[in-house]
Structure formats: C-alpha cells, structure tokens
Amino acid sequence: MEVLIQFDQEGLYQNHPWDLPIPYNKGEILSVNPLSAIVLIDRNEAHLYLKNQDLRISTDS
After folding, report:
1. What single-letter DSSP state applies at residue 48?
2. Which of 5, 30, 31, 37 could make a disulfide contact with 46, Cβ separation 3.0–4.6 Å?
3. Which positions of the chain have pLDDT values less than 50?
C-alpha cells in the first residue's frame, strides 16, 4: 500500500534504508509507504495529498 504526500520543503527522501536517497522539491507529489508518510508528516516535511480534497459531496438526486 502506498499513500500520496506533497512535500512542504526541499530535501532528500529515502523510502527504505537500502534505497539511495532521492532529492525532492517543495510542492512535489510522491507515492510513499505509510510509515515514511507518518515520519515525514510528523517532521513537518510533507502533508497528505488528497487529489479530491476540493470536491464536495453532492446530495442531488
């Protein structure tokens, strides 16, 4: 399972300890594993990206 996050600052990201760190830019959207998302969000380096966040539920029939 992967989640989408949007970075709030520039830096390096490493999905697994055996992966090479990759650079990312502020505003970039990346698919990461849930544990990495929790760590990045806790450090205020990123936030969850919800592509439907601006859509409102309509009750029209």
Report:
1. E
2. 5
3. 54-59, 61
